[in-house]
Specification:
The protein is α/β, with parallel strands linked by helices and 327 residues long. It is built from 11 helices and 10 strands. It has helices spanning 79-82, 116-129, 143-154, 179-188, 192-199, 202-210, 218-225, 236-244, 252-267, 285-291, 313-323; strands at 5-7, 13-15, 41-46, 49-56, 61-65, 87-91, 136-142, 159-167, 272-279, 297-304.
């Protein structure tokens, strides 16, 4: 498994180099500046909450799904490349970005509000409300990949294609990890995680910038910080997500979900675009080898650790621009 993190002098986390790439990076894309301004946001009803989302373009839906601790802001430089080919929609998951926080019910485990399956319920409702019902292309990352892959598995006849990057492709095992990520996930899954995420905002302040090759600007960081300015429960999604990552069969619910996805991904014939990251984090080594066995798949390699949209947005956009017309 990937996740080959090591400590740096500033106390952040970085990732070691991985295996060589298969295909070339699109020419000239790296020369373009990376924009900092967000795309205009809208809101729509999803069950008992409202969710924020970005929408540009017209035609068949192209849905962009983010993970932890990001938002639709992650896709700001990539969506314009796809907007000539369809109706691009990038939701903010509940409790994240500009979407509503889910209220805590009496006697409820705080993490239950932002479990994978709660996110799934609200995302399903939003997509239904937005008319995302057929000829859907998914562009997915991190936990957004698990949500997107599972939506595709449950709605295979409605899916035109899947572009994925740094996503969940098979269950994890602690035995495959170096000691730093082992210790980090163990800590997030313990009571110490409350202090790390809810008080110190570690996912935004440390893990996010350390998982990007370039230096993030203060303006960019301000957009990522915005949903989590208040210490405590406002930051709960950034803690629940690492607690949901399945290691050695636990939690059972997400382990079974990822295992089910892994089997499905090996056998379906949906057109796929794999955006391979160099050096990468989640998809490295044996995991990358496994992903390369999937059917009906093209591949492009870009520079980046985990949040590769912040290092290589124009390369990813150029790859989408080439791939989308082929669907």
């Amino acid at each position: 498994m990937g996740l080959d993190f090591e400590l740096t002098r500033r106390g952040a986390l970085t990732v070691g180099l991985a295996a060589g790439a298969v295909t070339a990076i699109p020419a000239n894309a790296a020369e373009k500046p990376i924009g900092t301004a967000p795309l205009p946001s809208k809101r729509a009803k999803a069950l008992d909450l409202e969710m924020a989302y970005v929408e540009i373009g017209e035609g068949d839906p192209i849905v962009f799904l983010h993970g932890n601790p990001t938002s639709s802001y992650l896709w700001r430089n990539i969506m314009p490349y796809a907007s000539a080919f369809g109706r691009c929609i990038a939701p903010d998951l509940i409790g994240m970005g500009g979407s509503d926080k889910r209220p805590l019910q009496e006697g409820e485990d705080p993490d239950a509000r932002y479990s994978f399956f709660e996110h799934q319920r609200y995302l399903d409702a939003l997509l239904e409300n937005l008319g995302v019902t057929e000829n859907v292309t998914l562009v997915i990352h991190d936990w957004g990949s698990a949500l997107g892959f599972d939506w595709a598995r449950r709605n295979e006849d409605k899916v035109k294609g899947i572009c994925f990057m740094e996503g969940f492709t098979r269950p994890f095992s602690y035995s495959e990890m170096d000691w730093v990520p082992w210790a980090m996930f163990k800590a997030f899954k313990s009571d110490l995680g409350d202090w790390m995420a809810l008080e110190q905002n570690m996912f935004v302040e440390q893990i996010l910038p350390a998982s990007i090759l370039r230096e993030m600007t203060e303006e960019e960081m301000s957009y990522y910080r915005a949903p989590y300015l208040n210490a405590g429960e406002d930051r709960r999604p950034t803690l629940t997500w690492p607690r949901e990552v399945p290691f050695d069969g636990e939690p059972k619910s997400t382990h079974e979900m990822v295992a089910r996805l892994s089997e499905w991904l090996k056998t379906n014939d949906i057109p796929k675009l794999f955006v391979n990251a160099e050096p990468g984090a989640l998809i490295q080594g044996e995991v990358r080898d496994f992903v390369r066995t999937w059917r009906n798949q093209q591949e492009i390699t870009v520079r980046g650790i985990h949040f590769i949209q912040e290092d290589s947005p124009h390369e990813i956009g150029a790859a989408l621009e080439k791939w989308l017309p082929s669907l």
